[in-house]
Amino acid sequence: MFFLGFIVAVIFVLLILYSPEKMKTSTSPTVIFDGERTIVKYSGLNPSSYTEFVNNLQLMKTTHEPEYLYKALDNLEDLSLYTQNSDLHVVEDIKGIIVSLGKDGETYIMKYALDKGHSFSPVYLNTL
Questions:
Q1: Torsion sign (Cα): 94, 42, 60, 30
Q2: Biggest CA-to-CA distance, the chain
Q3: DSSP-derived secondary structure letter, 41
Q4: For a tag site, which of 47, 75, 80, 117 has the least CB within 10 Å?
Q5: In Å, how far from its chain's centre is CA 116?
Q6: Do the beta carbons of residue 42 and residue 50 sit within 8 Å?
Q7: Would you say residue 12 has pLDDT above 70?
Q8: What does the pLDDT average to over 13-29?
Q9: What is the spatial distance between Cα 28 and Cα 64, in angstroms, rounded to a whole number?
Q10: Burial of 64 (0-12, 13-18, 19+ CB in 10 A)
């Protein structure tokens, strides 16, 4: 009898700990904001590409649409084209930021899609 009560108590605790409400993922874009802060040092390479990047990233954060993430990443790619030949380390740094921001942005969108029951097919996360 004690054993049965113990099993019921364990099941009850597990149900409370792993309830569907608690299993919902967070869609906090803190990592994405860090990527935005990281790239600001290169904003002078081409201010219009940087402005478009910021605008598309903001649209992605509010709409959760992947098209804005990919546009923002394209803007970063454009930004890297305005470097001098001697600034190859800048190009490599921007490329690293693009990959990192792509993965973080897709994770953000995927978590939102899972919470809302929508489908999402990532591009950068599929390369892991």
A1: positive
A2: 78
A3: G
A4: 117
A5: 16
A6: yes
A7: no
A8: 52
A9: 12
A10: buried
Fill in the DSSP letter of residue 126: G
Query: Rounded to an integer, what distance in angstroms lies between the CA atom of residue 27 and that of residue 12?
Result: 28
Residue pair 39/100 in contact (Cβ under 8 Å)? The answer is no
What is the domain partition of the chain in residue ranges? 26-127
Supply the mean pLDDT for the chain.
82
**Residue 39: burial class (beta carbons within 10 Å; 0-12, 13-18, 19+):** buried
30-77: per-residue pLDDT in tens? 556 676 788 899 999 999 999 999 999 999 989 999 999 999 999 999
Question: How far is CA 80 from each of CA 62, 83, 91, 92, rounded to the nearest angstrom?
Answer: 26, 6, 5, 9
Asked if residue 45 lies in contact with residue 16, where contact means CB atoms within 8 angstroms, the answer is no
Give the model's pLDDT for residue 29: 56
Q: Which amino acid is at 48?
A: S
Are 69 and 31 within 8 A, CB to CB? Answer: no
Q: How confident is the model at residue 21 (pLDDT cuts 50, 70, 90)?
A: very low
CA distance 1 to 24: 36
